[in-house]
Specification:
This protein has six helices and 14 strands. It is α+β, with helices and mostly antiparallel strands. A hairpin with a 6-residue loop joins strand 12 and strand 13. Keywords: Membrane, Transmembrane, Transmembrane helix.
Length: 286
Amino acid sequence: MDKLTRLGVLFRLLWRLLVLVLTFGLAYVTAFVAFPYLDKRLPLLEALLLLYLALAYLGIPAIIRFWRLAIRPNHIPLYAVTPDGWPSDPVNIVILAKNQQQLISAMAAAGWQQADKANLKNLAKMLWAVLLNRPYATAPFSSLHLFGRAQDIGFQIQQGNPPTPRHRHHVRFWRLPLTPGEHARFWQIALQDLLIGKREVWVGAATHDIAPFAIRWRSGQITHLIDEMTDRERDFLIDSLKQAKALGSLTTVKAGQPLRFRGQTFGVNIVADGYVKVVKLRRFYR
């Protein structure tokens, strides 16, 4: 082991130790400072709820982000990741479109609603719709990252009677960067034979929300429960484009081996066949 490698190992060990100290520090402050303070001023249930919100949505995510400053995620291009760098939804579909408007038009013709931006107002509106089982056809998505950024656009088909955000088919898309970046080269090589003419490449991750509530095992946050057989959602999307006569051609690209990995929520093990379906839209969709 050369000197540079030894220094790298030492740095990672020290960084892990620092994260461990911060984790114990957060636990100590929560149990012996924050809780006694809140318990004296609020009813027990309110104090516990406030502590949960602070830990799940501020404290634990902050420590995970600090960990990821030095310990980079190890994933192949088939994954989109959470803002903290953890593998999340498999990337399983690519759409080749003339431009973003053609993508929006084709998805609309296939029955998909474009998701609203995930700002505070829209997130509160979605939470209200989920809790009361009320319609919100363009409910926002949480952010997942590919190519070093959150999704550029998302679409959904909600289910139920009436259809609500509790159960929905949904897909996130990232436009492939024109310049090489995180994983971009992989897609440029994989799709080089298909990129004839000026077309934009939209890399997508399609999943199916099958229950309104689940717990993220790393942070304790509340989220949707997704169907672990993610290939079915990819095929559902493709079938909807076929029925709308928006599909020009369909090609399969092998992106890796069949995958099975632990999902973001308790009890979910994501399954993917290792293939990405590439859809070229028909020209008349503008």
